[in-house]
Amino acid sequence: MKTYKFQQVDVFTNQPLHGNPLAVVHGADKWTVKQMQSFAHWTNLSETTFIMDPSHPDADYKVRIFTPENELPFAGHPTLGTCHSWLSLGGLARDDDVIKQECGIGLIYIKREADRLAFRAPPLSKTGPLNERDLTRLSAAFGLKKTDVVAHQWVANGPNWSVIMLNSAQKVLELTPDLRALSGDMVGVVGPYPDGGECDLEVRGFAVPAGINEDPVTGSLNAGLAMWLIHSGMMKDRYVVSQGTILGRRGRVYVEKRYNDIWVGGDVIICVDGQVRY
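Below the sequence we write its predicted structure tokens.
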């Protein structure tokens, strides 16, 4: 049995227990996939990450990301949480301005902005509107009529997210989905708040195939959403997302377009610091 540095962090919040928790294991270079998946299943968090030495010549570190059921090539809250944990335990980036994280889809660029981190949204691997059959099926799973849906889109960027937009944040919060009907789908739902409030959008993310009925706060989903909403002109170049409200969380995601890039940011705090014996 060996020991490994371990932290559990809370992502997209500056208040403990109000964001999306992430388990982070350091020095996991010799862990097998079976070991990583078993440990992630045991933590039963939406994601658990494993830090190891990079194989890409430009990367500062490599991360593998696991849900309780499978491995993900990319995810947003694990990106910010892993980076924060890596830095807190003495990680030094080659570039003072940008940390380069290696993961399943390649290099992810992360910036430090005061006490907050932000990652550059990766390109979409699948985009375009949903077909009529999928739209009808997903609308029924959420108890909606197709006419309730203002817009819809694929925003896959590793996870294969599809999104439906409603006309208000309140309608998003009122949804009670049939989770069995979503067993094969990664789905986000989004709706706007009235102008002048703290947040511009309410987002909910359902990742049933990954073993996560509803994710507290979802970086990959918000990154894909931002690519769609900003590039289509449906949202301004800078906005704030609320997510996790229905779960008793207070997640905040800070989105900003700078030049041709979209950055997705959030606060991270360390809640547990110790060792894993495995």
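Residues 132-259 form a domain with the Diaminopimelate Epimerase; Chain A, domain 1 fold (CATH 3.10.310.10).
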